[in-house]
Design goal:
The chain has helices at about 5-75, 80-145. By secondary structure, it is mainly α. The protein has one domain (about 10-120). The longest helix is centred in the N-terminal third of the chain and has 68 residues, at about 5-75. InterPro entries: Desiccation-related_membrane, YtxH.
Length: about 150
């Protein structure tokens, strides 16, 4: 019961463990690649959503500025040209800020996508290293078994 295993049994056990390690490495690689793709897709979707929201906000501000100006004219309120110019400038400022926010968010989404891709690549590389190490261990065991 307490006797050590024979060389054949020990090599078999080691081969089984190396095989298990190789399978786990492949599984980790696949998971990392899947998660990377999921993060990339999520970042793309969120970028699109933010772009749409920003465009809607800009359009709403422009529309409201026009509506206020038209209503003031309709009810006989005289609006000085400087007030109209100021409203137009503010609307343009909001549009510029909105564009800057949209651009910044798109940059952040791209940055996040790049980081996720980098992580997936590193994980894949590490999985390959584990696979190579496992193969070398199996080869070494096989060489020692034939000696």
């Amino acid at each position: 019961m307490l006797a050590p295993k024979s060389g054949r049994e020990l090599r078999s056990d080691i081969n089984d463990q190396v095989g298990t390690i190789k399978e786990k490495a492949v599984d980790y690689k696949e998971v990392a690649l899947e998660k990377g793709a999921e993060f990339t897709d999520y970042a793309k979707v969120q970028t699109g959503v933010i772009k749409d929201q920003t465009a809607r906000l800009t359009d709403t501000v422009k529309t409201k500025a026009v509506e206020v100006t038209d209503a003031a004219k309709k009810y006989g309120v005289k609006i000085k040209s400087s007030a109209v110019d100021t409203a137009a400038e503010k609307t343009e400022d909001i549009a510029v800020l909105s564009h800057e926010v949209k651009t910044a968010l798109a940059d952040k989404a791209t940055e996040a996508t790049t980081k996720v891709t980098d992580v997936a690549e590193v994980t894949a590389t590490e999985a390959k290293k584990v696979n190579k190490t496992a193969k070398k261990a199996v080869e070494k065991i096989a060489d020692e078994a034939t000696k």
